[in-house]
Amino acid sequence: MPKPSSVDFSQFFDSLELAQLALIQSSAWRSEVVKLPADVHMEHEIAIGQGAPGSWRATCKYDLQAIPEKGSEAQLKISATYSVLYTAQGELNDDMRSVMAENATLATWPYVRHLVHSTTAEMGLTPLDIGLYKVKFKANNLGDSAEKTPSAQLKKSTSKKKRSSS
Predict the structure, then answer these.
(1) What is the CB neighbour count within 10 angstroms for residue 40?
(2) Which residues of 83-111 are buried (b: 16+ CB within 10 A; e: fewer)?
(3) How confident is the model at residue 134 (pLDDT cuts 50, 70, 90)?
(4) Most-buried pick from 89, 125, 155, 159 (CB within 10 A)?
(5) Which stretches does UniProt call biased (Basic residues) (predicted)?
(6) Reported pTM
């Protein structure tokens, strides 16, 4: 199948709309005793699938674990899955799928941050603030197409340390 021209790419994204964003699954667990500081690890997976004609659904899954610096088992786990529905005219190729995956991540990230912050507060912990999303996008020249970077991949992992606020 021939690769769509840049006109097709442009037309597709001109008609693209985010139609719905919904939390479809969440879970949280903490141990009785949580020792700080801890290493916080976040896994992120995305799947893009065809919906009804002219629609695509991105499923963004986030799994967070906090493991004490001198421990091996998680003391805190938070999991959330969001569904993002897009509508557009045209067909979705691999390049468009990559852009849509990145957009779905950007669209859901503020909700993930809020969920983690509020859930840890409700657990009686110092609310955990995870960072703003860092966009990693690289192009050789303004006219060249962008090169895929780790943030454009469909699965990623981030880590940071959580320190006590005392």
Answers:
(1) 20
(2) bbbbbbebebeeebebbbbbbbbebbbeb
(3) low
(4) 125
(5) 157-166
(6) 0.76
Structural domains of the chain, ranges and CATH numbers in brackets = 20-162 (3.10.420.10)
pLDDT reading at 60 higher than 90: yes
Which of 127, 126, 143, 154 has its CA nearest to residue 46?
154
Lowest mean pLDDT among 1-5, 121-125, 144-148: 144-148
**What is the model's pLDDT at position 83?**
98
Q: How far apart are the first and last CA of the chain?
A: 60
Residue that is written with structure tokens 């609310």 in the block: 127
